[in-house]
Design goal:
The complex is a heterodimer of chains A (304) and B (272).
Chain A lengths: L5 E3 L2 E3 L3 E3 L21 E3 L16 E4 L2 E4 L8 H12 L5 E6 L4 H14 L3 E5 L10 H5 L1 H14 L4 E4 L7 H10 L4 E4 L3 E4 L1 E2 L4 E2 L5 E5 L4 H14 L4 E4 L5 H10 L3 E3 L3 H4 L3 H15 L17
Parallel strand pairs in A: 3-4, 3-16, 4-7, 7-8, 8-9, 9-10, 10-15, 15-16
Antiparallel strand pairs in A: 1-2, 5-6, 6-14, 11-14, 12-13
Helix pairs in contact in A: 1-2, 2-4, 4-5, 5-6, 6-7, 7-9
Chain B lengths: L2 E12 L4 E7 L2 H4 L7 E4 L9 E8 L3 E7 L3 H7 L6 E8 L9 E7 L3 H13 L3 E8 L8 H7 L2 E6 L6 E2 L2 H12 L20 E5 L2 H13 L4 E4 L15 E3 L5 E3 L6 E3 L8
Parallel strand pairs in B: 7-8, 7-11, 8-9, 9-10, 11-12
Antiparallel strand pairs in B: 1-2, 1-6, 2-5, 3-4, 3-6, 4-5, 12-15, 13-14
Helix pairs in contact in B: 5-6
The chains are: A alpha/beta (304), B alpha/beta (272).
Chain lengths: 304, 272
């Protein structure tokens, strides 16, 4: 019997499949299709200290095997999340990871205190949103800022802190080391890759914000490479994500070094994608004769 | 609760040079849930990641019918399906039209016409007095008008170039209809409350945003309730990914897939 459990920085997930922030709301919508308890964890829509309405539409463009989005962190604010959404999520046997974005280190700290008190299982510090002007991506592309935000979040959080890394950097290992040095308990990667599409008839970018973040199968190889590089650079558990749409994709990310894997954009094509991918991953592990799914983590055999 | 299922294509008919009608065997569980103005999210082949949202035109006990124009590779793929082929359907989705009014004017423009047929038919089934005004670019894009005649008390057609119906915009027909309802003594208010006079109609509209804006304006002038069905580039279709934002008059951003596609006209920010 395969042991499906994985340990993400002391948080035990019943299986390695997670849904990433921004693709799953607060679980209500996809909860119509399957029991949220089927998942290892839910990373909720990115939270900010105050409600945000996000960017103007269009916020999405289709790309070859992918999508660009520019939502811009539309969310009801951390207080409304704690009052209205967290109690609903708590009705399910699933770990809840609160994703947070701030404009200043102090904003991150304040949210960490509130969310720890409210009893989330883990906090994911977003230092990599490509779709907001202030904070966001800047924290994720400069090691010293990444370290500062991580350190403040750790100081105010009573639960494990996972830092979400941006792929929009020259050397992701450098940012990973900065976050690890500042006390991060885990890392998640990759956030979306900045991209752009243009309507050749109107000569207008399709997204109203001109640029956005690329996700979907097109980014999988980038994610696999970056998870592998980060795994080699730091000794922290990794939540791997980026373009996973099959169990084999999930296994690739685990082999590269991920402890758990998030399934996001795939849900837009198939509402059952996270559950299907979990089943495919488990079947693959069983076929390979593993006794624990965690045996996959970091087990890639790179060429010399 | 919406359902995701592989459905068999029962019929695919070309309505004109641009528009196709597809009838899908969805089974009763999906079809029984449909209300007019809702949409289904169709997977258009393996190469395209995103589903395509298409309004429901008509529905039966076990089937539903969608009408779409070929706009890109996804809808082109759909147009090449044959009876017996399978299409992955997610639906029904969204909030449709409120048919509680006693007298209804349905307004359709272009590819906004098909969902109004389902509305007109459902309203007629409910015993409402239904009138329709439809706008097309030209004769070549005219469709479904015979079906409207069967369920509507009156039907007027207009086209951009006058090749079918009169030349002009559908807004003119809406205004003429509303003018004809007014008693003339309480200008510009309708004859609401005047015994023996017609009750004010509720206007239900689907079409390009510029048309909807103009229809909403006319309705406001005449003090008539107006519901509009909006479009936006969509992702998940169920309200989770938040990409299909539409600007509301109060400065908030709602989502077409979950809060709409039908909104009350006064809710919408028409300047956005």
């Amino acid at each position: 019997m395969l042991d499906q459990r994985v340990d993400l920085a002391g948080v035990e997930l019943k299986n390695p499949i997670v849904v990433p922030s921004g693709t799953f709301g607060f679980g209500r919508e996809y909860g119509q299709f399957f029991d949220l308890s089927e998942l290892g964890a839910i990373c909720v829509k990115g939270l900010t200290p105050q409600p945000r309405e996000g960017n103007p539409a269009p916020r999405i463009a289709e790309t070859p095997m992918g999508i660009l989005n520019s939502v811009g962190l539309q969310n009801p604010g951390v207080d409304t999340f704690i009052a209205q959404e967290l109690p609903e999520l708590r009705k399910h046997d699933v770990k809840v990871i609160a994703n947070i974005s701030g404009n200043t280190p102090e904003e991150y700290g304040g949210m960490c205190e509130k969310l720890s008190a409210a009893g989330v299982d883990m906090i994911e510090v977003n230092i990599s949103c490509p779709n907001v002007k202030a904070g966001g991506l800047a924290y994720g592309t400069r090691p010293e800022l990444a370290a500062e935000v991580t350190e403040v979040a750790k100081r105010h959080a009573a639960v494990p802190v996972m830092v979400k890394l941006s792929p929009n950097v020259t050397d992701i290992a450098e940012i990973a080391r900065a976050a690890a040095g500042a006390g991060a308990d885990a890392l998640s990667l990759i956030n979306t890759i900045r991209g752009m599409r243009i309507d050749v008839k109107t000569r207008r970018p399709i997204l109203k914000m001109n640029t956005g973040g690329l996700s979907g199968p097109a980014v999988l190889p980038v994610a696999v490479r970056m998870v592998w590089e980060v795994r080699a650079a730091v000794d922290l558990p990794i939540l791997g994500m980026g373009g996973v749409s099959t169990g084999t994709d999930a296994a690739e990310l685990m082999l590269a070094g991920a402890t758990a894997v998030a399934v996001g954009t795939a849900s837009f094509a198939d509402v059952y994608a996270p559950v299907r991918i979990r089943d495919e991953l488990l079947a693959l592990a069983e076929a390979q004769g593993l006794s624990r799914i965690s045996e996959l983590t970091g087990a890639v055999r790179p060429w010399e | 609760m919406p359902i995701q299922a592989e459905c068999t294509v029962a019929e695919l008919v070309r309505l004109n040079e641009f528009a196709y009608s597809m009838t899908l065997e969805t089974g009763e569980a999906m079809a029984a849930q449909v209300s007019c103005g809702q949409f289904v999210h169709l997977k258009c082949g393996g190469e395209r990641l995103l589903r395509r949202p298409i309004s429901v035109c008509q529905w039966g006990e076990n089937t539903l019918r969608v009408v779409f124009e070929v706009r890109g590779a996804g809808t082109a793929w759909l147009s090449r399906r044959k009876p017996g082929d399978r299409v992955d359907v997610l639906g029904p989705l969204g909030r449709g039209f409120d048919l509680s009014g006693r007298r209804l004017l349905v307004v359709g423009g272009g590819i906004g016409v098909p969902p109004m047929l389902g509305c007109a038919q459902e309203a007629a089934r409910l015993g409402k007095e239904v009138h329709a005004v439809l706008g097309f670019r030209d004769e070549g894009r005219r469709m479904l008008t015979g079906d409207f005649i069967d369920c509507c008390r009156s039907l007027n057609v207009i086209s951009d170039d006058g090749s079918t119906g009169r030349k002009g915009f559908v807004t003119e027909l809406v205004e003429e209809f509303l003018q004809a309802q007014a008693c003339g003594t309480c200008d510009p208010v309708l004859c609401t409350g005047c015994s023996g006079r017609p009750a004010p109609p509720e206007v239900l509209a689907c079409g390009p945003k510029a048309m909807l804006r103009a229809v909403a304006q006319v309705c406001q002038t005449y003090g008539v309730g107006c519901q509009v069905s909006l479009e936006e580039r969509m992702g998940c279709g169920v309200g989770a990914c938040l990409v299909c934002a539409c600007d509301m008059a109060d400065g908030r951003r709602k989502h077409v897939c979950k809060d709409g596609p039908v909104f009350r006209a006064e809710e919408v920010s028409w300047d956005a």
